[in-house]
Amino acid sequence: MSTVTLSHLLRSQESSLLEAWLAEQRRSGNVRNLIADSDLKRQSAEFIQLLQQTVAEGDSTDYSSSTISREMRRFLDSITGDRAQLGFSPSETATFIFSFKRPLFEAIRTSTNDVTAQIDEVWNSSLLLDRLGLYVTESHQKAREGIILRQQQEMLELSTPVVKLWDGVLALPIIGTLDSSRTQTIMESLLERIVETGSEIAIIDITGVPTVDTLTAQHLLKTVTAARLMGAECIISGIRPQIAQTIVHLGVELGDVVTKASLADAFKIALQRTGFALAKRSSITAVK
Amino acid sequence: MEILQSDVLQIRQPEDIVLVRTAVRKIAIASKLGLVDQTKLVTAASEIARNTLDYGLGGEVRVDMVRDARTGVRLTFTDEGPGIPDLERAMTDGWTSGKGMGLGLSGTRRLMDEFQIASKVGEGTTVTIAKWSR
């Protein structure tokens, strides 16, 4: 029975298979020196152990229909997760599995003289390793998607802080693009803070917005209108010269919205409107 | 006219518009466009790319760095969407069939050195725009 020989082979030649496999992995350079040698050794040894189990428990002739054991899945998920974090490509990760083929086939070749048995074994073990390799690729992709999703949400959270500059004065520094989903988040957090602090003036700073097209302008104007309905005036600051020229050519009318070149200018206006004045200490003592 | 460099980008989802802007900005810098012209070109690309996605139901853009007497950037947006029945009205300031400001096409024409639009109802729309270095 062919499976008997494969599981027997994996058990009896465990250490020599491990040695040959590690040599193969180092030679093909797929570890990119990012994984410590001791870790690689531990992972490889664990994989061979789990493979023994899979072969022993699996269907005697057809590995393709056997399901991958839960332990094996957990192990593969954990190594692909680590490698995705380290920036491995899916094929680099799958090469971990596929690089086991050469030492394993070599062991099968030397284990018997029966050519038919050799071919059977090679076919069976190849099927099994291919399935595991494909599983690793899928798992790797899921890990990457998870990372991307998390980063997107982190960016969405990070990029919309509403800060209090003074009593009754809020500032909203916008960085990046103003697409629909972000505008929604920005508008909500601004309106919430206006209510919370009872602010009369909100400064929207667009120094960090690289492109202001008609959609961005429309979103800005909507935010200003909404803030006005809540009883707060908005000042848009940080409009760079090239953006000003572009807005004019586009034909966008900012209407009666107050705009300033820099956040500092906008802040000065805001202080004036809320009844404050900034003065140097020396000039105050001089008046006395 | 000589094409020095060419690239095709797909416009299938909102994130693709960001990629179009990034690619156009890069090629505008490589073509030695000034800061104002870079900004105008990137803004125009953003407008038309969004039209391609929202009204043309997705398409692609060809980004060319070209040389005639001067170097410049030429963008060709193509979609196979429903097309524009009345081009003259579509080019009017403030008119929109959607929810925008109605300044995308007319504003883009003012931002660019060259602007061509061709559309057939039921077949799609092609917009070609170009900006030359000074």
UniProtKB/TrEMBL annotation, chain A:
PROSITE patterns, per the entry: STAS
Annotated ranges, domain STAS: 159-270
Keyword terms of this UniProt record: Phosphoprotein
Protein name: RsbT co-antagonist protein RsbR
TrEMBL record, chain B:
Keywords of the record: Kinase, Transferase
Keyword Nuclease on entry: no
Pfam families assigned: HATPase_c
Domain named Histidine kinase/HSP90-like ATPase: residues: 36-134
SMART domains in UniProt: HATPase_c (SM00387)
Full protein name: Serine/threonine-protein kinase RsbT
Highest taxon, organism lineage: Bacteria
Keyword Transferase among record annotations: yes
Organism: Granulicella rosea
Any one GO molecular-function label of the UniProt entry: kinase activity
